[in-house]
Amino acid sequence: MSTKKVEQKIETFIEGALDNPLFKTLPIKVEDIAKSMGIKVLAYGFDDDISGVLVINNEGATIGYNQTESRVRKRFTIAHELGHYVLHREESDVFMDKQYKALFRSPGFTYTEESQKLEQEANKFAACILMPESLLNKEIEKMEFDLHSEDDIKHLAKIFDVSATSMSFRLSNLGFKFF
Q1: Does residue 27 have a cis peptide bond before it, meaning omega lies within 30 degrees of 0?
Q2: Which residue ranges does the record assign to the IrrE N-terminal-like domain (predicted)?
Q3: Chain centroid to CA 148: how far?
Q4: Statement: residue 108 has pLDDT above 50
């Protein structure tokens, strides 16, 4: 799928979702959004190298997330798997999110160029859902935000219930300049 088509699908999803009360308050209730779409969301005792999985079958879709990971990682995983559902469900019926470190611990495991692209698209979707640009701008306007302040980035991350790293990437991808 082209980058433009991915961006259009994300925009269409967010535009439709903005009327949903789950998108009106922060942090975004990503698990509730998935459930409102009829997707089961369940905690699993995965190995450390697996963050999440999306399985689509005749009974519907299920997102499984690693119950041992941090709350912000679980939220990102659910949003990521929801991204696979919205963007890629025609392409496969199983998606597994293996952490980057798994590449070094799993002999012979490598992502193909196509699977890397799908993962990047799902990551973009997750960032857009968890940190919608319009809500992010509103929060930034409320504070004397300093991009050079680690504390300000952490404060925003806390409001959106994401990691400071995710917030930094999102701000950068939205064109905020750190230097």
Answers
A1: yes
A2: 34-172
A3: 24
A4: no
